Amino acid sequence: MDLQTFFKENPVVALGFSGGVDSSYLLYAGMHYGAKIKAYYVKAAFQPQFELEDALRMASILGADMTVIETDVLSVPHVAENPSNRCYYCKTAIFSLIKETAIKDGYTILLDGTNASDNSGDRPGMRALEELSIRSPLKDCGITKSDVRRLSKEAGLFTWDKPAYACLATRIPTGTTITAEVLGRIERAENALFAMGFTDFRVRLTGSAAKLQFPESQMPEALKRREEIIIQLQADFDSILLDLAGRKTEETLI
To answer: What is the CATH superfamily name and number for domain 3-161?
Structure first.
């Protein structure tokens, strides 16, 4: 099956939309193949502001129908406790909310942007999607991450080379309680580094310290601008640490 066939067989669908590479291409493809597709973006403490801005920008460019749903994800049982399967509880809550809203709007089929490169093994979030009967057409059609980037570039989507970006909760070690205050500190730190021109990095919480993970290619620049980075981040963290191993590719890290 290809995407054209999928949307021919499923002409009215809702999409859990993040504004990232995969869901942006899926939104484009649905519209390109004539489906009635509506995007739903959930704004919660785990999503930084720039993700919402990217989602709104993409929907505007495509002329897509998009609804923003706000929710307090930290009030969901077990999420703030941050167990190893936190993503299961979070995904269940978020996609249940999208599904409930979409059904009220007349959409009974809900999609997500999981692609064929995403390994479902030992990923609690994937189990949540399966239990809620969320369809993943990119995965079902055998479309990999590299395929999505290539097709997105061909379609002229600005997201084609957007770095993979996991939610802010992934910056906090399993078992460490997640609070809005901690998430805010991490988001401010990452925004500061983005403003300095760094990309595809992570700011990980380690006790009261920030551990910075840059791609290997950006490590010399990070070392060169060490003092500037410290000045930008020191108000929110007791120590600023640099992971000398660097950050791996999007295929191996979230």
So the answer is: HUPs (3.40.50.620)
